[in-house]
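> tool_call: predict_assembly(chains=four)
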Amino acid sequence: MAGVFTVTRVLRFADCDPAGIAFYPRLLEHVNNLVEDWFAGPLECSFHDLHFKRNKGLPTVTVNVNFLRPAELGDEIDWSLSVKALNRSSMTLSVRAKRPDGEELLHAEPTLVHSDFTRDPPRSEPFPDELREKIETYQDPQ
Amino acid sequence: MAGVFTVTRVLRFADCDPAGIAFYPRLLEHVNNLVEDWFAGPLECSFHDLHFKRNKGLPTVTVNVNFLRPAELGDEIDWSLSVKALNRSSMTLSVRAKRPDGEELLHAEPTLVHSDFTRDPPRSEPFPDELREKIETYQDPQ
Amino acid sequence: MAGVFTVTRVLRFADCDPAGIAFYPRLLEHVNNLVEDWFAGPLECSFHDLHFKRNKGLPTVTVNVNFLRPAELGDEIDWSLSVKALNRSSMTLSVRAKRPDGEELLHAEPTLVHSDFTRDPPRSEPFPDELREKIETYQDPQ
Amino acid sequence: MAGVFTVTRVLRFADCDPAGIAFYPRLLEHVNNLVEDWFAGPLECSFHDLHFKRNKGLPTVTVNVNFLRPAELGDEIDWSLSVKALNRSSMTLSVRAKRPDGEELLHAEPTLVHSDFTRDPPRSEPFPDELREKIETYQDPQ
C-alpha cells in the first residue's frame, strides 16, 4: 500500500500578493518545503545532511503545476505527496494542496534529480539504497 | 512578424540557495517579473493600474517548466517572452532564459487568465480590445 | 505577570543563502510570521480578518535588529515575543530567536502602527479596546 | 568628497503584500541587492567572487530601519548608499530610498562584517587593502 506524506500549513501574509491571494512562486516554495519535510521526517535524510554532509542535492528539473483555485490568506492547507515515478537517480512526485472543505487548490508534478554537488555543474547520481527503499514506500501503485 | 519581449537581469544572491544555484521558486518569480515588465512597457498596462484602477488581475492557472541547467549567482540572464496561444480571456506564454553564451537555462509555459477581481473568487473576463491588439503583436507564428 | 508568545520553527532551505546560513531578510519574514501567529492565536484577530474584514493593517514603521549568531539550515528555532511599549495606536515588540541549546540568534524590536487602510496613505488609528486588553497581557513589566 | 552609490528600481508585484504596499522584509532584500550591486560595480568584487572564489562573506550583524512612508506597487525608487563608519573588518552603511518626487520611503543603517567563511561559525577578518581603499571613497565626511 502506498504511503502519502502530508503536512498542514496556514497560508501566510508573506505568501500573498496585492490581489490578496497566494503569489504562485510562493506556492512552489511550499512544494519545496513539503519535500524538505518529507526528507527530514520519514526519509531520515535532512536537507542539512544531504547538502552539507553528503554534498548531494535534489535540483528540480521539470515541474508542471495546475492552480485549480486561488489560495487565500489564512487558508489552512493540507499538502500531500506521493511518488508517481521512481528511476535510478530521479523521481517524479505528485503533490496536492487541499483546503479542509476538500476543495483542491493545486496539483504539481515536480521531477527531482539526486545529484552530486562536488561536480560543476552537479551530476546525477543513483539514490543510495537505504534512501531508495524509504522512497519506494511512498510510490503510487498505479 | 512576431515580436519577442526581452529583458536582461543578473541572478542575485537573494535568488540563490545553499547549493549556490538559483532556488527554483525564485526563477518563477523572475518569470512573473518578466510578464510584469511586458505589461508595464509595450502593453502600456502596469500591474498597478491593472490591479488598483481596473480591478483586474492575471492569475496563473497552469505552468510547465523545464530547468535545463542550473543558473548560478551572478549569471547575466536574458529573459524572453512570446505568446504561444491567445484565447478570449487567457493566454499561454513561452518564456526562455539564456545566458550570454547562448546556454539555455529554462523554458516555461505559463497560462494566465485575465480576471475580474471584484468577484470572489475572481472570474475570467475577455481581454479588452486595445490590450488584445498589443498582445497579438507578440504572438508566435509557429 | 507578563505573557510571552512562543512558537518553534525549523529554519528552511528557502530561508538560506549561498553562504549556507539564514538570509537576513528572511529572518525578518519570520518576525512578521510570529506577529501573524500571535494575532491569529491568543489575540483572536487573524490577519485575514484584520485586513479584509476590518480594513486595518499593522505596518512596521521602525525595526532594530541584532543578528547575534548565524542561523543554519535545519536549526530548530524558538521565536518569542513580548510587548516592550504599548501606545494608543502603536506598539514596540521585543522578539528573540533562540536555538534549543539556548544560543541566542537574533533580537529584534519592531514598532507597528495600527492603521486604517481605507485612507491613502494608511492613517494611524487607536487599537480597539478588546484588542488592546489582550495585547496588554503580553506587556513586559520592566 | 564622499561618493554615493545609487540605483533606481521599480517596486514589483513580488515585493508587495495583500495591503498593496511593500512587504517590509522585501525592502530589506532591496537593501541587500543595493550592497550587492555596489560590490559588483564600483568595488569590483562581485558576490560570486567574494563567496565562491575568496570564501568570504558579509553577514549583516545589526540593522536599524525607519520606514518613513509606505512604498507602493510600481513606485520608481532611487536607492542610495554611503559609508557611515568604516572599521577594520566591519562597516555601517547609510541607505536611503526615495521616490522621484523626493519623498523619502526608508532609511536603513546596516552593519556588515567582512568574514572568513572557511571558519564555522564565520570569523571576522579585516577588509583587504584594495577593497578598503575603494570603500573609503564612499565614506560620509560627517
